[in-house]
Amino acid sequence: MHHFTGFELTPRKVEYMKYISTRGERVNTSKMAVYFNVDPSTITKMIGELSESGYLTHVPYHGVTFTQKGKEYTEFLLRRHRILGLVLTHYGLSPEEACFESARFESYVSREMIDRICRSLGHPMMGVCGAIPHDRECCQLEADHLADEQKNVNTIQFDR
Ligand SMILES: [Zn+2]
Ligand SMILES: [Zn+2]
């Protein structure tokens, strides 16, 4: 796991990365330009920048794939988006509203804060718009720890 704070990408690039993650490996840049309502050259430029920063590998005429770093980072982006969405649904927003609203500010929320909310929510598996990917630093370590604890204290009954 690469170390990151959650502030590595601009809000726009966060949206591009999430979009690419939902489209698989072949990303059609002209469709993407239509979706984001920008000029295709903007998409090409952004893909070039994300490749230079090590998030994507661009194979001309074949599309883009995530590097390992890009894959891990996108899992965090999805977790951040969906954890914040869950928080918003606790305060009366519908899943659609929560999805929309969290996308407006999620890029300003640190990984540290997401890990802490994730922990306090018990590492939920399902968000408002899909499954929540879990990483070792936050969720998996915790899950391992809880499993160990359960082994050690399986004679004690907890009120939960
Ligand atoms: Zn969403
Ligand atoms: Zn977690």
TrEMBL record:
Query: Which GO molecular-function terms appear in the entry?
Result: DNA binding; DNA-binding transcription factor activity; protein dimerization activity; transition metal ion binding
Matching entries from PROSITE patterns are given as:
HTH_DTXR
Residues of the HTH dtxR-type domain: 9-67
Q: Which keywords fit this entry according to its UniProt record?
A: DNA-binding, Transcription, Transcription regulation
Q: Name one Pfam family in it.
A: Fe_dep_repress
InterPro entries for this protein: DtxR_MntR_Metal-Reg, Fe_dep_repressor, Fe_dep_repressor_sf, HTH_DTXR, HTH_MarR-typ, Iron_dep_repressor, WH-like_DNA-bd_sf, WH_DNA-bd_sf
This protein's source sits in the domain of life called Archaea
SMART domains reported for this sequence: HTH_DTXR, HTH_MARR
Q: Which family does it belong to?
A: Belongs to the DtxR/MntR family.
PANTHER family under this entry?
Answer: IRON (METAL) DEPENDENT REPRESSOR, DTXR FAMILY, IRON-DEPENDENT TRANSCRIPTIONAL REGULATOR
Q: What is this protein called?
A: Iron (Metal) dependent repressor, DtxR family
**Source species of the chain:** Methanosphaerula palustris (strain ATCC BAA-1556 / DSM 19958 / E1-9c)
